[in-house]
Prior knowledge:
The chain is an all-beta fold. Among the domains are: 40-242, no CATH class; 703-801, Immunoglobulin-like (Sandwich), CATH 2.60.40.10; 805-880, Sandwich (Immunoglobulin-like); 887-961, Sandwich (Immunoglobulin-like); 968-1042, Immunoglobulin-like (Sandwich), CATH 2.60.40; 1048-1122, Immunoglobulins (Immunoglobulin-like, Sandwich); 1129-1208, Immunoglobulin-like (Sandwich), CATH 2.60.40.1930. Helix content is 0%, strand content 51%. The protein has a 20-stranded mixed beta sheet that branches. Strands 71, 72, 74, 75 and 76 form a 5-stranded antiparallel beta sheet that branches. Mean pLDDT is 85; it is low at 1-35, 209-215 and 238-243.
Amino acid sequence: xxxxxxxxxxxxxxxxxxxxxxxxxxxxxxxxxxxxxxxxxxxxxxxxxxxxxxxxxxxxxxxxxxxxxxxxxxxxxxxxxxxxxxxxxxxxxxxxxxxxxxxxxxxxxxxxxxxxxxxxxxxxxxxxxxxxxxxxxxxxxxxxxxxxxxxxxxxxxxxxxxxxxxxxxxxxxxxxxxxxxxxxxxxxxxxxxxxxxxxxxxxxxxxxxxxxxxxxxxxxxxxxxxxxxxxxxxxxxxxxxxxxxxxxxxxxxxxxxxxxxxxxxxxxxxxxxxxxxxxxxxxxxxxxxxxxxxxxxxxxxxxxxxxxxxxxxxxxxxxxxxxxxxxxxxxxxxxxxxxxxxxxxxxxxxxxxxxxxxxxxxxxxxxxxxxxxxxxxxxxxxxxxxxxxxxxxxxxxxxxxxxxxxxxxxxxxxxxxxxxxxxxxxxxxxxxxxxxxxxxxxxxxxxxxxxxxxxxxxxxxxxxxxxxxxxxxxxxxxxxxxxxxxxxxxxxxxxxxxxxxxxxxxxxxxxxxxxxxxxxxxxxxxxxxxxxxxxxxxxxxxxxxxxxxxxxxxxxxxxxxxxxxxxxxxxxxxxxxxxxxxxxxxxxxxxxxxxxxxxxxxxxxxxxxxxxxxxxxxxxxxxxxxxxxxxxxxxxxxxxxxxxxxxxxxxxxxxxxxxxxxxxxxxxxxxxxxxxxxxxxxxxxxxxxxxxxxxxxxxxxxxxxxxxxxxxxxxxxxxxxxxxxxxxxxxxxxxxxxxxxxxxxxxxxxxxxxxxxxxxxxxxxxxxxxxxxxxxxxxxxxxxxxxxxxxxxxxxxxxxxxxxxxxxxxxxxxxxxxxxxxxxxxxxxxxxxxxxxxxxxxxxxxxxxxxxxxxxxxxxxxxxxxxxxxxxxxxxxxxxxxxxxxxxxxxxxxxxxxxxxxxxxxxxxxxxxxxxxxxxxxxxxxxxxxxxxxxxxxxxxxxxxxxxxxxxxxxxxxxxxxxxxxxxxxxxxxxxxxxxxxxxxxxxxxxxxxxxxxxxxxxxxxxxxxxxxxxxxxxxxxxxxxxxxxxxxxxxxxxxxxxxxxxxxxxxxxxxxxxxxxxxxxxxxxxxxxxxxxxxxxxxxxxxxxxxxxxxxxxxxxxxxxxxxxxxxxxxxxxxxxxxxxxxxxxxxxxxxxxxxxxxxxxxxxxxxxxxxxxxxxxxxxxxxxxxxxxxxxxxxxxxxxxxxxxxxxxxxxxxxxxxxxxxxx
Length: 1210
């Protein structure tokens, strides 16, 4: 199978699209990709023609400013739109539209369509008939558009691209593209150009090569009668027609010079460059570590760009003098190390670093520096590295453990090497050196590296085993090569022509081997790199005609002037091959990068015009000196060469083949045109200064990790997810695997961790088998079955340890306040334990912690760790709540002989246990103690028991008080009404309070009480209580009040003198004795005595005494005996004016009542004549208001009533 890959370079692909026809009520979803991003929007019915008829033959559309692309039924339709302003203001203008169709002749119009890489952007349409959604994708595939040929369209780095993927049995001759609407078509320099009135489309010259590294396959466009086809030379296996220039940019300002000397990438595809700048603008971003150029000379700069070439952050770095970097490296976590030369004594180092102070002194200026930034551009630390004289030409690399190696050259005799290093002192006039730091900037070891003359290290690299390689050039005749070296002697003895050298150290700084590399001319090794298998590659420039190349390589012979060269050694210093690279003019190689498959990518600069291969990105040298990029396979055969540059002078400093299959070049340029892409960070260069440049070239399909690696410790049984991606789609039926190396990082017998069936990027769920052995140098990699492809490993050593197995237990359930005993058993031995649990419990280093007084239920978690592997187990602890502390109530304090009642309340359902004085115990909730004595005095305690737990103890103190002696109550009962009653306590004690209570609320605190004139209301029971200190005794006495007789007197009073007077007792009671007394000594024992005649009856009070049951009762009644008048009663004058006189004789009369009444009986007035005694002579004067008339004067004397008439005349 092979893949034919053609790229369209579209002129205007920046802004959103306005579709053909009428769109009703379209609404975008809130999430939309960044401005200018291309994607395929599905046709869900919204695309219509000018007659408002739906275009079902259009499946997808792409939008760009002034241009739209429609895909469907084996057709690409390009439509340009241009708005023409109106010539008259306030009137509408016109719109011009032009269309170009590219039709796949003979294509399968029923091809199955699949989509990949959806984007968040969606369009919602609301119409009167229906609502629908149009989704967007970055890739669509028409399967079997021709037999065994798929048509894959996708967007990449903001470009529209399409591939023809030809499977087994597919015939590329069937692929024919018919263009309609073009005003001109031509093939020029291998590219296909289509012209229209609104613009041109250029399809770059196809470049076809075997994907598995078997070299280039000839291919070209063919054009006949407006139909484009492809001519592909015979081949076997899969081929790819590629590559593509993704983007290229300037970096710097136009007013000053800017250089790029360092290049690195991280696993997410971000790219970093660093260099020296003299520019005050267009360098640093807002908020960077340092945002302004230093006060003198130039500064270092460091910039991070994303895979699309968009700057993420950029910073100056330096102090008050000249600062310039030589190299940068990036670890798998995205941390950036930068090194270079500095003459600044400030702004470089951080406190606590390896060398915080400048060491260059005043004799010679210049130290090296090393600084670390995190992926967000925040400096982590910085240090000087140098002695008294001076250091320069710094280079960096990382080993498998992410230790960082710094190499350089020194003329200082101090501060360079560590004790016991391979070479502890300076040998020649200048020596190279190499120093190893850990990731935190702590120096591990350092050594000089040189012979008896001057030596310069130009590059440093490490292999996966931790061996270190340094390369450069030397004038030394001794101290370089080791025994049995590839080239044991200096090639130009006694001359000033330098040789290259390559030296290897182990990870501890011990020299493994060394060799010269050079012939009869000068030889300059500029770069050294290692491949995945541990081979070592060197590259540089040479004027030697011998000892450089091996037979059968790409260029075994020297050409002329200066050539580049590349050589490959194994890890033990045995050369595998070597080749020149160049032509008649000067060609120099400055850097080399090696892919996962062992292909070497070299870059340099050339004055020649004949280096590029057919189908290259830039087949011609555009200026005096252009950059070139060349790929060699693992056997030294050239696969590809392209120029890169503009119309001026271009020079490359670094090349890097990253883990995603991209090639990055960086360097310096004076070219004003022909270098940057249109949408680059900086697309142009003006003035006479140099700018840095950076370009990305996508070389081929590549499988890579799409995440940063920061975790280094894993355990057997761990699960994790790996994000991966691909540069292009893989074949149908492909599966991607994550594989684990052995504990040395070797993948000879990998362990599968996870797999997913897919053709492009995604997520793979992984699990480390429990059978994996403990080790600290594991790596993971990706493989693809369909293409037999393998990624770089993750670049990060992984420690994998045995996952502990633990079991946490406890003595749960327990009651609150009891001692909780935790325990754990686990394997392997040597586990470290830490506990955490409810209520903030924690314990470290104890496998069986004890928690006294435990109160918190919940999960108690033990974490067992060993060598970074940790596991947790949980024991669920139940702390049973205690019953509530019993609350005791009682009827105390008590007195002797009373009943003690105890009552308790606690948690419902509890049982109780009582204890108390005099051996008291009970399980009754509310016990009673009757007739208590003093032995019951004391503390009573009770506990509640529920759910197997016993509460706190409740307490109650019972107080028993002594009682007084029982009193004796006495009374003179029975008594009669109106007699006197006494009640008394016959026995009395000092200090005792005696209290009487009786009928009708009677109370008294007198021991003896006298009642006079008692009544029936006082009869009843009287209680005598003797009280002492709240305790009492009592006695009672019954009081009887006998009723007193109540005789009623009945008489015929009043009577007249000489009449009979009858007296009688009313309501007599048998057995009652009666006794009468009255005026004149009268008495009688009869119930009804009679007083007859004048001799008996006298006016006055008569008394009756009745006696019954020893009780007497009396009563009285006044008896009136009227006396007759002795003399005449007179009133005169009988006719008067209201005043008249009354005269009469009376006997023994004190007060006489009188009244005047009218003839009609109305009383006019009344009065009394007092103290009359024997006579009356009283003048009566009536009020003046009494009217004339006849009136009667009435008077009663001695019981006789008289009435005298009189007349008032006024």
